Amino acid sequence: MIELVLVFISHARGDRAVVEALRDRVRAAPGAAWSPAEALKESPEWRGEFASLIRGCQALLVVVSQHSRDSEHCRWELEQALEAEVPIWAWFRQPVPWHPALSSASTLRVSPEVAPETWGRGALSR
After folding, report:
1. What digits encode the pLDDT tens for the residues 63-118?
2. Tens digit of each residue's pLDDT (9 = 90 or more) over 21-32
3. Domain range holding 110?
């Protein structure tokens, strides 16, 4: 039996296209789950709803780029995960210095040419 893992993907709008491709791959992978966080931003209580999602997830995946480093929302999401002691994974799209917590985060490598069904065998790795 495959255990479901709920991962909150923190990203900036400038990285949306690549994150949508990643999200589609995550949705296709066995045992993957996704929170439709974008839809929540239309709600006036989105910060509270995001905080609940982040605190309830099993990991926060930070898409690290110049865009996310400059995003107030991304910094807030990272702080929520740190306060809740949620494991943090970092996917470095660009080698930019950002938050000290990211230097000790697990880093992920996602190869675009690898099929999602093989992720459990090392294509998505620490």
Report:
1. 889 999 999 999 999 999 999 999 998 888 887 887 888 877 777 655 444 444 44
2. 877 776 776 655
3. 5-125
> Which residue reads 């949306």 in tokens?
16
Encoded amino acid at 5, one letter: V
Report the CATH number that the domain containing residue 67 is assigned in CATH: 3.40.50.450
**Cβ(5)–Cβ(34) under 8 Å?**
no
**Phi, psi angle pair for 79, to nearest 5°:** -60, -40
Mean pLDDT of the chain: 75
User: How many domains does the chain fold into?
Assistant: 1
Among 1, 111, 16, smallest CA distance to 123 is for 111
Q: Which amino acid is at 10?
A: S
